[in-house]
Structures are given as C-alpha cells and as structure tokens.
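Ops channel
N.P.: pipeline sanity check, posting one input/output pair.
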C-alpha cells in the first residue's frame, strides 16, 4: 500500500510537471511563410535576436473575442537593455504592423498592455528595439478568426456621440494614490473610438463601413514625451493602453490623439503628484 501511494505520488508529480511545462509553451510562435516574406519590409537587413531572456509576452492561445485580444509585453526584472521602441506584428492580419510605440526617457522598462484584432490563426510578435538599434523579438501563436471584420460592439450613432472621449486611470499597487516626483506610476489610457477597420459590413445596407480609426496617440508630461503610438486597423474598438512611467513633477499627463478623418482629441489628467 505504501509503495502504491509513493508510485501514485511520483506519477502525479510527473504529470503536473509535464502539464506545467506544456502550459508554459502551449502557444509558441510557429513557422510562418508570411513573416518570411514581409520581414525585410519591416526591419530591412537588421538582425533579429531572441528576446526571451529580456522580455515576456502574454497572449491567449485561443482568443475569447477575436476583435479584442489582450496582449501584454513586459521587460524582465534582470534585463539591462535600454529599449526605446516596441512594434506589434500580427502576421496574418490584412495590415500586419498593428502598432508602434516610441518611448520617452520617463517610460523606463517596457510594460505595455493593449487589445488587438486578430483576423486569422496567426503569430503575434513583439519587436523591441534598443537605443543602439538592436532588435529583440518574442511572440505567441493565437487562434482567432474574423477580428478585423467583426461588427462593432456598440451602435454606431452611440459610438460617434462619444468619439474621442478619453479616460485615464492611475494605479499604485492596485489603488489610486499620490506619488512623489521620481516615483513609479501605472496608468491605463482609454480612448472612445469605433476604430472601423474598413472590413466591417453595415448589416442593414450590406455595404462596407469606411475605415476610420485612431492612428496616433501621444502621452506627455509637461514637454517630456512618455510614449507615442502609431496604429492601424488592428487596434481594437475603444483602444486601451496600460503602461508604467516615472513621474517628472509636471503634475499632469497630457494626451493628444488623432484619427484618420482628421479628428484631434486632447485632454489633461492630473497625476496626483505630491510636492
């Protein structure tokens, strides 16, 4: 009986270890002819290095909603690289370059969470570039389909009525709280916008809805850049960006967003900085 219990315990432990290992690699990137064909157009002849020692990416193996796939990229605590740019690539999307982020000096280590449309089973890649031009890549394979042509989640009239409205939530270990100049801050920026991809169909007229999406977002502290985003049709409806930065004492975050119809949306958000 004792031996049987030991054997069962060992077997269960081995199963759990194998399951944990399987979970850890359940959706690694897969070989992609699409990526092989377009890589030179995106990075030229630059060498792409394995970024797994410095970065980690979280993306679902099977997306719950192909139109709002959560993707998070974080720099590992022991990374000693100075990243200044992050690019998201979705191999099988009609416009594979989903978004490019440029970071200012107060951004610090990469910590970015956003939502993307995924149009077909695809690798989702994050390419991080250092100040000296080296490129590091990580990614995941995501099972999703139809994200770029999925109908909008809300009535178009309602979406247009709130067009360009913005909100910023500040976090400090999960709670909104004052932070001194020089302290780390976590924030989430949300922009109300239908982000029409041009591939969605009006269910009444059966005509395609023209593309109309947020193409730039700039976040500033005073005159200092925190981050600048250039995006395309792969950004989800009502784009959202959660990020971390260092307070510089300006006391406000100023956000300027533009869309492809010439709209410009600007707002300032107090950062609750203590003197």
């Amino acid at each position: 009986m004792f031996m049987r219990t030991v054997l069962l315990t060992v077997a269960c432990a081995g199963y759990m270890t194998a399951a944990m290992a399987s979970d850890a690699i359940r959706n690694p990137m897969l070989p992609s002819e699409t990526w092989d064909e377009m890589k030179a157009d995106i990075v030229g002849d630059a060498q792409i290095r394995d970024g797994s020692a410095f970065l980690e990416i979280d993306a679902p193996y099977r997306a719950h909603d192909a139109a709002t796939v959560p993707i998070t990229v974080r720099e590992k605590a022991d990374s000693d690289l100075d990243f200044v740019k992050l690019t998201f690539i979705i191999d099988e999307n009609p416009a594979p370059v989903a978004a490019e982020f440029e970071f200012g000096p107060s951004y610090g280590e990469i910590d970015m969470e956003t939502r993307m449309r995924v149009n077909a089973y695809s690798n989702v890649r994050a390419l991080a570039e250092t100040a000296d031009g080296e490129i590091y890549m990580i990614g995941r394979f995501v099972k999703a389909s139809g994200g770029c042509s999925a109908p909008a989640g809300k009535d178009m009239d309602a979406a247009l009525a709130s067009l360009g409205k913005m909100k910023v939530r500040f976090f400090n270990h999960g709670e909104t709280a004052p932070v001194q100049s020089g302290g780390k801050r976590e924030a989430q920026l949300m922009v109300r916008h239908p982000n029409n991809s041009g591939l969605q169909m009006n269910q009444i007229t059966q005509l395609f809805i023209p593309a109309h999406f947020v193409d730039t977002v700039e976040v500033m502290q005073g005159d200092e850049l925190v981050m600048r985003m250039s995006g395309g049709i792969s950004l989800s409806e009502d784009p959202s960006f959660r990020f971390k930065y260092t307070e510089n004492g300006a006391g406000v975050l100023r956000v300027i967003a533009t869309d492809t119809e010439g709209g410009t949306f600007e707002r300032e958000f107090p950062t609750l900085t203590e003197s």
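N.P.: looks fine end to end. The two ends are 69 Å apart (CA to CA).
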